[in-house]
Write a structure and sequence with these properties.
Layout (H helix, E strand, L loop, with lengths): L7 H8 L5 E4 L2 H14 L4 E4 L22
Helix pairs in contact: 1-2
Length: 70
Amino acid sequence: ELGCRNENNPIHFAAYGWDVTGVDIDSFSVADGEYNLRVFCHTGSLIHHDLNNGLPSLDGQFKFFWHLAC
């Protein structure tokens, strides 16, 4: 998810077996999201990155990108 905040949305995908990656600019949100993934899903990764500078380097193939706008 792009702009994942605390990883609440990707947790739902991870619960169904998806390999999820979240990207967010806020280091506190990334830390919260890493905790949430560990506790609730035991899988997934987060990247601390400013999307104003483009996408970060991503390894692997992605089936889709998710961004839920406010």
